[in-house]
Every structure is written in C-alpha cells, then in structure tokens.
Amino acid sequence: MESASLEISPAELHRRLQAGHDLQLIDVREPEEFDYCHLPGSQLLPLGELTRRTDEIRTEGPVVVICHHGVRSGQAAGYLRHRLGRTNVLNLRGGVAAWAEQVDAAFPTY
C-alpha cells in the first residue's frame, strides 16, 4: 500500500498548478484515453512504454504521474521510485476520475 506522502490529491495538484509550481505531469494512459481527456500540460507516456522512455521524465523537480483511477500511475510511480531510485515522483490519487469529481466538474469522464 502506497503511503499518502507518495501521492498527491487532486485538490493539492490543482492548488500547486494554480500557484504556478513547476510540475512535470506524466500521463500513463493509452493514447485513446489521453485524446479523450487529459490535464493541460500533461505529457502522454503510456505505461507499456515507460521502461524505455524514462529519459523523458525529469530527475529533478516534482513529477506527477496520472492515469484514469490511480492504479496504473501508482505502478509507474512505484517503478520509478523502487527500480530507478527516483524520489521526486508523486501519484495523482484517484486519477483523472477524481480530478473530474473533486476539482473540475466539466472535465470529461469515461
């Protein structure tokens, strides 16, 4: 079970984005999901491509990993932390579904 310190809530992510914090948003969903809806400024990096595209994820500064409900992004964040030793990675708790529910009611859901 991931501890809360390794996750970020949708409300906290929204607060940080509104405050202009420099965050890298990595969306690990599939291209069709990303095309349907994604957080502004996020970069698509499907989970299946993660291991060969880790050079696209910065090693300094906060990185927030995003998916539909937080499961795939949790796997990606765990890989980055435990296999690559990245300490700057946060999982968006509840994914874009929670974002739509807690932050932006107009955000598309599926």
How would you summarize what this structure contains?
The protein is α/β, with parallel strands linked by helices. Helix content is 32%, strand content 15%.
Description of the molecule:
- Pfam families: Rhodanese (PF00581).
- Residues 19-108 form the Rhodanese domain.
- This is Rhodanese-like domain-containing protein.
- With 110 residues, the chain is α/β, with parallel strands linked by helices.
- The protein is built from 4 helices and 5 strands, in the order βαβαββαβα.
- It has helices at residues 10-18, 31-36, 71-82, 95-102, and strands at residues 7-8, 24-27, 43-44, 63-66, 89-92.
- A 5-stranded parallel beta sheet has the order 1-5-4-2-3.
- Helix 2 links the parallel strand 2 and strand 3.
- The chain is globular and about 35 Å long.
- It starts with 6 loop residues before the first strand and ends in an 8-residue tail after the last helix.
- The mean pLDDT is 95.
